[in-house]
Amino acid sequence: MEDxxxxxxxFASSLHFFEFLEPEYYKPEFSVERYKxxxxxxxxxxxxxxxxxxxxLRENPQxxxxxxxxxxxxxxxNAHYLxxxxxxxxxxxxxxxxxxxxxxxxxxxxxxxxxxxxxELKKNGLDIKNIQQTTDKKLELMSVFKISVDRYSSVxxxxxxxxRKHRKRLYERIRKIPAVSxxxxxxxxxxxxxxxxxxxxxxxxxxxxxxxxxxxxxxxxNYGLYVIERIFSAKNIPNVKKNLIRGHSSRNPIGYDESNxxxxxxxxxxxYAPEVYAKNITKRSSGALKKFDYIIFSDKIPQICxxxxxxxxxxxxxxxxxxxxRMLNEDMSDSPLRFWWITDGNYWLTNDGKKRYxxxxxxxxxxxxxxxxxKEALKALK
Length: 382
Description:
Mean pLDDT: 87
Order of helices and strands: HEHHHHHHHHHHHHEHHHEEEHEHEH
Number of domains: 2
Structural class: alpha/beta
């Protein structure tokens, strides 16, 4: 039998480095045509100061969306929206009379805010119709007002409705309340060098070519799945998840024999299914059924449960994975199913990676393969 150092050398010599297999950027999302009027206005004359910009925003509130896409990757934060929509400096004071008057102005000027404030009052047993008769509950009203301010700002900032009804609230507030456009404009000139930025770019062209990067963590986190899917495809091993989907769940996991699939059309030979549960295989930490990245079938019978990870660098996640997989491997030792850890990446070339690999093989008797070794293991199966 090959000694452990030789096993590690074979493992390390065939490791993968990260490849860019998937698009790194999302397709353009901003509709330049929808904002043609706003873009034409800003292209005609770039505001020289916050007063000119505030006026332009009131004239065409959709210009805010254009500005947001130029200064932010996706959108301004909830904190930005709260500062734009409301007088935060006033809200941070402890002057009840001023805040009370400000609350009444917002209720009267903004129907959307009035609705949110009214629903929050109901939760506290109060009625917005009697708001001016409840001044004896000053602290309660102030807290409800601030809760409503926070909720309103969040709703507007995170509008995902098809009708953009919450975005329209923002437009109305910019149009009707001069202080809102003034706060936006002041922030952009004082904090973001608005004039210099707009003078250095062509807004329409910039928005046409702007790309938003895919989240780096999810991209690298999914790398192993991309590679394994390619390996299955190259080996002509079919994905049978759609065949299982009708009856498969954590309440109806995959059993160890063909009896589970009498009414489900699974092919003969080798097949696989991603993200599936296996009967009686649970996580020690929670007792919940374990969902595996993949399960491989042979002639309709589950054979191998797979977890896959790619590690470019060290981190606590590796230790967490190792402990979980070690326990799974131990718990599955009496099961008809086998457990394989398919892992790769240049972390395994480090001293720490080598020690971990040897520990998994020698101490824990785990099946640990990199992607190239996984290809070879599939050849042996077939």
